[in-house]
Amino acid sequence: MIAPAVALRDVTCRFHTTRALKEGIPAYVAVDQTSLKIANGEFVSVIGPTGCGKSTLLNVTAGLLKPSEGSVEIFGDILRGLNAKAGYMFQADSLLPWRTALENVTLGLEYRRVPAPEATAHAMEWLDRVGLGGFGDRYPHQLSGGMRKRVSLAQMLILDPKILLMDEPFSALDVQTRVLMENELLELWSADRKSVLFITHDLEEAIALSDRVIALSAGPGTHPIGEWAIDLPRPRDIAEIRLAPRFVELHRLIWETMKEEVLKGYVQSQRK
Amino acid sequence: MSKASGNKSGLRGPMLRFWQALLLLVVFAVWQALVVTNVLPKFFFGEPIKVLTRAVTWFTTGTIWPHLATTLLETVLAFVIGATSALVIGLWLALNPTASALTEPYIKAMNSMPRVILAPIFAVWFGLGIWSKVALGITLVFFVVFFNVYQGIREVSPVVLANTRMLGASRSQLLRTVYLPSATSWVLSSLHTAVGMAFVGAVVGEYLGSSKGVGYLILQAEGVFDVNTVFAGILVLTIFALLLDGLVGLVEKRLLVWRPAPAGSEAH
Question: How far is B232 from chain A (nearest CA, A)?
């Protein structure tokens, strides 16, 4: 059997705030004893109420954050340092504002010391592929939110990572742009089936995109509370699949489990 | 600044320029009238017409050029050396928490010290030539740029940093593609102040002891109570300070094309 692309084993993340240390309060446990596997080529969405430590899980998988306990395995190897097999798409804007769209896309190739003409040609192809063919010379501030996300997508995919880590990448977009981007993501993904760990708080988005949906409990001490295989046929059209009876059924099923946690999360966010 | 206020008022474009020129003319006319009618003593306040004639003859006879060249050379040297060293030291301290923590109180102390009082020391160290003025200018420029570089490094968004690290940037690549451009953009926005400071350093240095430069001209004129020449010197300095500022504005515009226009200003 091939090792899973990502395997988190009993990962726990604690954060020590300076105040907590001083007053002897126990550390804040963001993620508690979480195990999670993503098979090679699988699209997995992790969904949970706001502030439940979803991003923490992603940062651990990316190697940006070392778990307090537990281990991360990438294709069977224990992860040490940054995860070189993964591309990461952030929720917030992550482009370099002083570089044009094209120069942002070539960034990763530049770090790999690919000769400039080659990198530029390759980046032009990728800009075309994400539908930004004529926009290479624009700076990020001259692009719309959706266009910036496309640049980020090209910036990540040009390096051909085996694993995609996506942290609510489309949450800042308006509904129409979002559906467009989701469809484009699926199309790009189906071309070579990378393993995807997609974080979102939008259940519809999670079901429409994924092979499997994992729901997390409200923080602190987030852990998985349920897992559903999404047996909807592919290729899918995001706008249409939402109307399929099986979609509605899955939605109801998952929502039943999540409702309580969402409420808990809401109460906690109000208390702060 | 002037652009923004101009946009808000009803005056625009050439009309605004006309009224601005007229305002200047009126001020000079009132000054002239007050002096001619002896309301203000000529001895202390000079005569605008004589001030202007003096300034114009400086340029027509060309006597001003060597002095102006000296002052400008000092300004440019002070700016270049001050800004470069501030960029290097700022980068180093911002990326090195230990060194930064160690030197912090001393940098604060040096910044709050009125640095103009260093001029006599620099005159002793570097003589009455241009280098004592350059040194004074450097101490003025350095801190303006230094704090901006420091800020520029500290303000790099953690998301941008994480992103570039995930794209595989090594430490030196991170410095070259993220920290340095970010710091440079902050330096550029402090350029107006920095160039102004370099100019102040040059003129004050000259005024305190020199054999050349516009500050020296003013000092000489003051020595013989030639108020008109003092004012002419001030006039020339002001005009060249404005020119320098305009030049900086051009450089800034060219290098900061990637920056969104500040909120409220008009797109062109």
Answer: 43
